[in-house]
Structure formats: structure tokens, C-alpha cells
Amino acid sequence: MALTYLVLLVLVGGTLPAVVRSLLPPLPRRNTGITPQAVVVLGAGRRQRDGQFSLTTRGLRRLQLAAEMAHEHSLPLVVSGGISTTPHADNEPSEAQLMAELVRRRWPTMTVLEEGKSRNTWENAVYSGELLGQRSIDEIILVSDRAHLPRALLCFQSQGVLAQAAWRKRLPKQEWVPSAGALSMVPEIWYEWLALVWYHLRYL
């Protein structure tokens, strides 16, 4: 009986935006005095249907925010993500290619730089850092999801790139009203906590 109550308490708590917000990994200390020279957006995976590849809903959300910010501030946009590890991957578009295509349709004059080699967040930072370094850019706006940004910021900082975090808010303003959207973020948050531990052991 006690275990049942505990499970119910966890489930109910996981639906409350205030509780879910408190579980988010903390962002690194904010870098002050940054003058962004580019906007970098990290991919969130691809999906395939009837032989056609497209971005995930999460990836589209990130891309929309990043492109809007790059347009607003007249900055180049770096789209970063992924090559496939499946057979015949050479014939498949990377996430970067998919993102760049969408942005160029909407803003044909925007400068879009593609980083299409990365397979994880660490490689996002390494390969994007190389691309930025070729253009003497070391201060950026970094766009991803809020739960993912602490890990992403640490990876970019390790490459000598100073970043301001930007994300699209997903948690409702009513902090104590149960929300299915809040509950859907709980597995993502726990994954990021585990990933932070792993990245500190392996990379950082």
C-alpha cells in the first residue's frame, strides 16, 4: 500500500510544472558581456516515412526559434546534426541538410552554415566549434531544449566557444495545475541527468 501511494505521489508530482521545473539540470553560470556572432541550433533527430526523411517535432521547434533569432539579429545560422549510422547512410540527408533546406525556403538570403558530421552532443560542439573557428567566431547563441542545454553548453565551452542559452518554453505558466506536457518531460530530464554524469566521465 505504501508503495502504491509513493508511485501515485511521483506520478502526480510529475504532472505539476513547478515540480518538473525544479528537476531540470541547472544551467552553467551565465556568461556576461557576450556579443553573439552567430546562432547555433542542435538537431533533435530525424524520422522516416515512405522513404522520405524529415525533422522531428522537437527539432522543428528548435529550428524555428533559432532561425527567428538569426533573422532578428542579422546573424549567420549554424545548423548542427547528424549523420546516420545505418547502412547506405551516404544516400540519406543529414539533419543539417534538412534544417538548412527549410530555413533557405523561408529566408533565402540568410547565411546558413551546415555541420552534418556529428552524431551526439559532444560532436555537435567539436565540429561546430571547428566551423565557427574558421570564421573567427567564438561567441554564440545556442538553441536547444531546456533540459538538454546544460550538457550542450558545457560541451561548447570546452571547445572555447562562449554561449548564451535560448530555448522554446514548454512548461505551462500555471505551475500547480497538472499538465500532460509536464509529465512528458520527466523521462527527458532523467535522461539528461544520466547523460551529464556520463559526459563528465568521458569528455568533460
Record keyword descriptors for this entry:
15% strand; alpha/beta; 5-stranded parallel sheet; Rossmann fold; DUF218 domain-containing protein; two-stranded antiparallel ribbon; 7 strands; Cell_Envelope_Assoc; 7 helices; 204 residues; Rossmann-like_a/b/a_fold
Count helical runs: 7
List the domain count as a whole number: 1
Q: Briefly note the CATH topology name.
A: Rossmann fold
Approximately how much beta-strand content do the residues carry?
A: 15-25%
Note the overall shape. Answer: globular
N- and C-termini, Cα separation:
43 Å
Class based on secondary structure composition and strand pairing: alpha/beta
Low-confidence stretches: 5-10
Mean pLDDT: 87
Largest sheet: 5 strands, parallel
The arrangement of helices and strands along the chain is: HHEEEHEHEHEHEH
Organism: Alcanivorax jadensis T9
Pfam families: DUF218
InterPro entries: Cell_Envelope_Assoc (IPR051599), DUF218 (IPR003848), Rossmann-like_a/b/a_fold (IPR014729)
Protein name: DUF218 domain-containing protein
Short description:
It contains 7 helices and 7 strands. It has 204 residues and is an alpha/beta fold. Strand 4, helix 4 and strand 5 form a beta-alpha-beta unit.
